[in-house]
């Protein structure tokens, strides 16, 4: 399959590109810079120059492909306005990609987050939130999945709060960055809230499986660890960096503060049974041992 990939140089995207090529697919990948283009070329992908906001370029990439994996998302999370702009940009991109694929029965796999459900572990059957700081992403994903009625094999892979590789990435990675800045490995609340996690290479396998065989309109959970307590995550970060570990106000984490404070474990039992996905890479707490002081 010739696959168009956006976001192919990020933590998830670089693993997805490698997984696709290693399993016999070919990749056309969007690149917005010379550095990204070189990284994709070195990985064995064909490059299409452009940005996520270049909707005509996205349509061209989709038209040239047998399927699409949409992973690109803005990197500025510093304010609620910046996060909102990234969500709007992502929504427009998914709309353009989906419209290009309409009536073709070709697959598109997009990315979202696992939902949080008060008092229990979230499953694949739970709906995404459509209100709150990231509600716009939920609405965009739902709109894409609805294209199943228009001849698009649209599916979504829901990612946990931390997608990690060599001790970096996701919410845990943001905790590490904040710890280096503040001189303390801090966590919001009492730290008993749980975050699910997955290794990027395990997640990449699930994206491939969804691309190859998942039915239209379905959502899947790329969850290897159902939920590590945030204070346990912070404890490893503090030990690796030689910093004290203590609770800090959730406001210290900007627009992600309210999300960081939520207890949000998630299960992938249905995904494993239905698609045969079996994560094999190190757990989050194991992988955080790769943090360099």
Automatic annotation (TrEMBL):
<dbReference type="GO" id="GO:0004029">
    <property type="term" value="F:aldehyde dehydrogenase (NAD+) activity"/>
</dbReference>
<dbReference type="InterPro" id="IPR036291">
    <property type="entry name" value="NAD(P)-bd_dom_sf"/>
</dbReference>
<dbReference type="GO" id="GO:0005737">
    <property type="term" value="C:cytoplasm"/>
</dbReference>
<feature type="region of interest" description="Disordered">
    <location>
        <begin position="113"/>
        <end position="134"/>
    </location>
</feature>
<dbReference type="InterPro" id="IPR001509">
    <property type="entry name" value="Epimerase_deHydtase"/>
</dbReference>
<feature type="domain" description="NAD-dependent epimerase/dehydratase">
    <location>
        <begin position="3"/>
        <end position="215"/>
    </location>
</feature>
<dbReference type="InterPro" id="IPR051783">
    <property type="entry name" value="NAD(P)-dependent_oxidoreduct"/>
</dbReference>
<protein>
    <submittedName>
        <fullName>Nucleoside-diphosphate-sugar epimerase</fullName>
    </submittedName>
</protein>
<dbReference type="Pfam" id="PF01370">
    <property type="entry name" value="Epimerase"/>
</dbReference>
């Amino acid at each position: 399959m010739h696959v168009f990939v956006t976001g192919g140089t990020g933590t998830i995207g670089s693993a997805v590109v490698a997984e696709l090529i290693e399993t016999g697919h070919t990749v056309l990948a969007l690149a917005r810079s010379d550095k990204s283009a070189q990284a994709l070329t070195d990985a064995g992908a064909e490059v299409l120059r452009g940005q996520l906001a270049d909707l005509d370029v996205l349509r061209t990439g989709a038209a040239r492909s047998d399927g699409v994996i949409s992973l690109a998302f803005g990197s500025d999370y510093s304010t609620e306005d910046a996060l909102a702009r990234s969500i709007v940009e992502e929504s427009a991109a998914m709309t353009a990609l989906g419209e290009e694929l309409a009536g073709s029965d070709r697959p598109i796999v997009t990315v979202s987050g696992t939902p949080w459900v008060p008092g229990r572990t979230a499953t694949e059957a739970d709906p995404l939130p459509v209100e709150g700081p990231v509600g716009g992403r939920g609405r965009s994903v739902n709109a894409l999945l609805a294209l199943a009625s228009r001849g698009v094999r649209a599916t979504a892979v829901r990612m946990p709060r931390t997608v990690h590789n060599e001790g970096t990435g996701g919410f845990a990675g943001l905790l590490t960055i904040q710890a280096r800045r503040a001189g303390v490995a801090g966590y919001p609340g009492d730290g008993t809230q749980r975050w699910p996690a997955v290794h990027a290479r395990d997640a990449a396998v699930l994206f491939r499986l969804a691309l190859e065989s998942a039915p239209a309109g379905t959502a899947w959970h790329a969850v290897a660890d159902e939920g590590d307590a945030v204070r346990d995550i912070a404890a490893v970060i503090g030990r690796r960096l030689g910093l004290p570990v203590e609770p800090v106000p959730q406001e210290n984490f900007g627009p992600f503060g309210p999300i960081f404070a939520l207890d949000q474990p998630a299960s992938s039992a249905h995904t494993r049974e239905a698609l045969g996905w079996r994560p094999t890479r190190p757990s989050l707490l194991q992988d955080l041992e790769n943090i360099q002081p």
